[in-house]
Design brief:
2 domains; alpha/beta; elongated; 7-stranded mixed beta sheet; Rossmann fold; 12 helices
Length: 280
Amino acid sequence: MQDLRLVLEKHGFHFKKQFGQNFISDTNLLRSIVEASGIDENTTVVEIGCGAGTLTRALAEAAKKVYAFDIDRDLQPVLAETLSGLENVEVIFRDFNKLNLQEFEEEIGEYTVVANLPYYITTPLVTKLLEESEKVQGISIMVQEEVAERFCAKENTAEYGSITAAIALKGSAKIVKRVSRNLFYPRPNVDSAVVKITFERGRIAVQNERAYRQTVKCAFLNRRKTLENNLVNFFKLSREEAKTALAEAGVEEKARGETLSPQRLATLADVLWKKGVFKE
């Protein structure tokens, strides 16, 4: 940890709270993140929030190419030092969440995302990749432990929610490592976990992906209300239309959204799609 602190101090770097900057320097942790991601010398890696470049260097030593994104240009001299001698790293000072992903993917081809994510961008980033990406093969990200639990949750649990169901449509998620807050600098207030999302496009067949996403949004609109009430409020269905749709999807009349598996949500989405509920 001392070496990283010295580099940051040398370049007069000051942490910015609004960017959620918590850097890793523990060599064993960095190595384990790289190993868990499954990347090799043929893999193109996209890292979001590269920070001081410690994970970037570990990735570059294992991967074919690393595209490292960060929005804090004050890190430029730090990265110039920590990534010196590496020919396969391209640092990009841009907000990945504002990137035209289709254009970027046409340029780089298939890739894997590996990152120690700033907590505040975790869900928007994962959502962007799920909804817009055609070429991401997997995501291995360090996130807040509570968020990791949500990503991997099962139906009928408090952690299960819309992001869980969104991930399940495109892939499977599992926690591969839990990480103490003491391994970060500066030390955050919570522990973290590494989640690996393996993409399996088509694992849940749906008539229309947008219809599925809207159905998921509806299901978790108000967790205290029945799914029937949420259907009425979200899609402006009549009470009878909502009851009929649920019956055709094999859903109990008084069920709540969090009791439905992603597969059952997909069935309901297909029923609603066939009924013309969604407008193009």
